[in-house]
Amino acid sequence: MPLNDSIHILSDSALFADSLLKADSLQRVDSIMRVDSIMRADSIALADSLRIVKLTRGFEGIPHPSFPESENWVFGTILFLFLMMVVSFLRSSGWFYESVRTFFQVKDRSSIFSKTTINDFQSRLILIMFSVGVVSLYVFYVLVPEDQGFGVYGFLITLGICSLFYMFKFLSIEILGYVFIEKQLLKIARESYFNLLIYLGIILYPLLIFKIYFPEWLNNYTLYISIIALVFYAAALIFKLFQIFFQKATTSFYLLLYLCSLEILPVFLIYSIIRQII
Known about the structure:
Blueprint: H1 4-56, H2 72-91, H3 94-101, H4 107-113, H5 118-143, H6 152-180, H7 183-213, H8 219-245, H9 249-277
């Protein structure tokens, strides 16, 4: 039979063991809570730091560069110009082949027997607008800086400037012809000038397509061909003016004055205006 002292010792040891277990469990719970709170604090601090980095150190993405071959409006413009050329030749094409055949001939006699119909007038007008559009797009392609986007706004400005230039040329030819030139010679000069513009537009149109959509190593060749076409255009214009108006030696002075004041200087003026705007 156990003694009372041993019973007390056992009960005290049991109470002590129970207190130790409770203290240990409390310490574990406290440590777990501390670890959990520390983890939560770390996660909150990490989230805040990520948010701060996102707000303070973020970079905007670089937009995709604008190239003429990737712009939809460039393809639409080229397609529209092609449709204009097709419609013009469907309306009437006889005057075009006749003008090419007799361009380097004296037009006084042939113009007497030629008759301009409404279809011929509409066909010629459409081809003139076609050529102005081709020249404007080509000029804009050559003059636009590489670091600037190939936007439609700059092309519309270039198109408007070129259209105003050719309207000015038409009015100047009409005014000068009314004052100084006979009516028949005025008609021949006007038709010859705009026929040359039409020829230039037709030649530059495929070169423009090659320059935009073909590999880059072909750009130099198309540029050289374009320069040659412009040289032939200027030479043909000078030849035609002398063929129509040259009567005596003093006439050459007035022709050169016309070329400098109404052909060469306006081109440099247009070049400087377009470069400043775009």
